[in-house]
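Sharing a chain and its predicted structure for anyone who wants a worked example. Both blocks are below, sequence first, tokens second.
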Amino acid sequence: MPLPACPRCYKTEFEIAESDELRGGGYRTKVWFVQCSSCGAIVGVIDYFNLTHRIRELEAKVDKILDKV
């Protein structure tokens, strides 16, 4: 299977960046942008309230609490 590549610079490393606010369609919402780590070209969008991401954050907090107990 080929590696996904940036459409602008053809690099293959990506990162997630938080948007301030996305407007359009009659509503405003926060989202995560999937962007090229090299040039910053946006290649995708993920809902800000992504449950998997939120669950992992909560797991990390619970682990820290359990380590103190």
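Comments welcome. Strands lie at 14-18, 22-24, 27-29, 31-36, 42-47.
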